[in-house]
TrEMBL record:
Belongs to the pyrroline-5-carboxylate reductase family. Keywords: Amino-acid biosynthesis, Cytoplasm, NADP, Oxidoreductase, Proline biosynthesis. The keyword Amino-acid biosynthesis applies. It is found in: Cytoplasm. The lineage of its organism: Eukaryota, Viridiplantae, Chlorophyta, core chlorophytes, Chlorophyceae. GO terms for molecular function: pyrroline-5-carboxylate reductase activity. This is Pyrroline-5-carboxylate reductase. Pathway: Amino-acid biosynthesis; L-proline biosynthesis; L-proline from L-glutamate 5-semialdehyde: step 1/1. NADP(+) binds at residues 16-21, 77-80. It comes from the Eukaryota. One of its GO terms (cellular component) is cytoplasm.
Length: 276
């Protein structure tokens, strides 16, 4: 788990794009004490988004280039199809002191360097929205002129809001399919479990709280005991008991294959985005 508070980072953070993922990251970093709002610069053509960033103390700028002028770490947090454009806007003002961190799904290091220039220190990260609550699962790879200092900096940022692993770039599509998109699968699971509880007679608020806490507790058991999830499942499953009746229904519905297929489909989509 990320530490409750992190030592303040002596860097200014910029966001090119102030959407959902930028917000989750900015708020998560502020909550952990890594940066204060007055060290965050942002740009977005949507005034609702810049006003929201302003409301928590960030400074909106008129252009992406102005964000770069007022930041050391620049998060590229626009949709994949806008990445080349925003990087071309900041390219003229990039210096050796900038670390450019793209979180865009499917946009390769080659494309990032092509757009940002051969001297850019480029890091590609695939995070997920739980960075808002200090529990992101992220992976990164380095490109361009990015060096060990850039890696350390990006690691410091993401370790303040969860966990980050360094992987070969060829694995980032699978990371996207599993943990990048994964919160959506888990939210669907929580919603469905809560619906089941309501169907069985529980009040909605209690059903949702029980469902979410069950996912949290089970995830913690996997992480803290290191025991195989199958063995942990067996510990819950009494002969002729209640759990095996539920497990049998999940197997009948092909739940495991559905989760595997979801990860593979999202991975395939990430690979497709790389080729566009
Ligand atoms: N939402 C998620 O869970 C995750 C998203 N990502 C990646 O993060 C990136 C952003 O995704 P979201 O935050 O979900 O999208 P979003 O649509 O919420 O945010 C993108 C923002 O970029 C702004 N924008 C569009 N053109 C711009 C420009 N020229 N300059 C500055 N801002 C511009 C849009 O107005 C919007 O507010 C995507 O590339 C996505 O692949 C990565 C991991 C998880
Ligand atoms: O759905 C998407 O394309 C983005 C990337 C990973 C999570 N959300």
């Amino acid at each position: 788990m990320a530490t409750a508070t992190a030592p303040a980072l002596n860097k200014r953070i910029g966001f090119l794009g102030s959407g959902q993922m930028a917000e989750a990251l900015a708020r998560g970093l502020m909550k952990r004490g890594l940066v204060s709002g007055d060290r965050i610069a942002c740009n977005d053509p949507n005034p609702a988004r810049t006003n929201l960033f302003k409301s928590f103390g960030a400074t909106p700028y008129e252009s992406n280039a102005d964000v770069a002028r007022n930041a050391d770490v620049i998060f590229v947090a626009v949709k994949p199809q806008h990445v080349a454009q925003v990087l071309s806007e900041v390219r003229p003002v990039l210096t050796e002191g900038h670390t450019v961190v793209s979180i865009a799904a499917g946009i390769t290091i080659d494309k990032l360097v092509e757009a940002a220039g051969p001297d850019a220190h480029v890091v590609r990260v695939m995070p997920n929205t739980p960075c808002l609550v200090g529990e992101t699962a992220a992976a990164m790879c380095l490109g361009g002129k990015a060096n060990a200092d850039d890696e350390k900096l990006v690691r410091t940022i993401f370790e303040a809001v969860g966990k980050i692993y360094t992987v070969d770039e060829k694995l980032l599509a699978a990371v996207t399919g599993l943990s990048g998109s994964g919160p959506a699968y888990v939210f669907m699971m929580i919603e469905a479990l809560a619906d089941g509880g309501v169907r069985a007679g529980l009040p909605r608020d209690i059903a949702q709280a029980l469902a979410a806490q069950t996912v949290l507790g089970s995830a913690k058991m996997v992480l803290e005991t290191g025991t195989h999830p199958g063995a942990l499942k067996d510990m819950v499953t009494s002969p002729a008991g209640t759990t095996i009746a539920g497990v049998h229904e999940l197997e009948r519905a092909g739940t495991r294959a559905a989760f595997m297929n979801a990860v593979v489909a999202a991975t395939d989509r990430a690979n497709q985005l790389s080729k566009m």
